[in-house]
Fold this sequence. Notes:
four-stranded mixed β-sheet; 29% helix; alpha/beta; TIM Barrel
Amino acid sequence: MIIERNEAWGIISYDTQNHEFACKYSPHKTQQPYVSNPLVLNCYLTHECNMRCDHCVAKDMQTFSSEDLIITNDLIDKINASPFLVIVISGGEPLLPHKSEDLVKLILGIEGKGIIVDTNGTNMLDKYLLQLLKEKNVLLRVSLDSVRPGSEICLRKIRGNKKRNEEIYFQKLNNIKSFVRDGVKVAAQSVLHKQNTLDIHHLPEKLQTWNIRLWFVQRLIPTVNMTESTYYTLDRDVYEALAHSLPNTSSKFNVRCITKKDRRHNCVFLMVHDGKIYTSSDNSEERIYLGQLGEISDYFSFVSSSEHSARYYSNDSLTE
């Protein structure tokens, strides 16, 4: 299914089968392709997680709301009536077994939107949820930062020794291959930091081997609670050089690489608890409350439309 929305400059669309945005200019239009309404809503299904990753943004959000999302028919109706084209269900870890009922209810209720579930990939799924993900064309986006366990578990880990964290890393790799075999659409999502820049170029070849054709890449932005942030954070020019080269590397392995090019913190919309929507401020220790879903008249009062657009599509998405 292709979801389309008219803009002053043309049409913005989202392909729910291939999970990609496209922009089509109207003839003789000169406006920049910035959207009048937001594209993606991030729903924090739960703050709970079986891992304790150092750079997890959910820990920051607990300062503002420590309660899980309350899935009601009213909330689902508001999601469906909202201007967002894509709903990203995240956490915490939305694939925790005891959150399965809420996740199923949310996925079943969403209509006319693209659906992405962000996961650390360490939990296997029951047959019903696997079938539901396939029927609803849900993209399962698995966090994976390296082909080497050491480059990943420096940030993505449970509290425990190195051997246990390596076991979980390889368990995730096995789960990824199992998801693909079961017919679920799977993408990889990587965070670039100083410890994985040397081996990140080897990941597309591995994704091709696993029959994964979509890869999302973004720069690490330190969280409030992250220690030793300067030890891991890339300079912007280093990230941008990688963001330019990685799509070329990926194309050689028939993997589409989408690098997120937003330069500011506050271009993402986050929904928690009973429909409250926040965005980040330029100060990483603060969040801006925008209002309740269904009651916000101007989403771009504090959020840059251009930065929000740049996060989700690039000039490669544009056609005349």
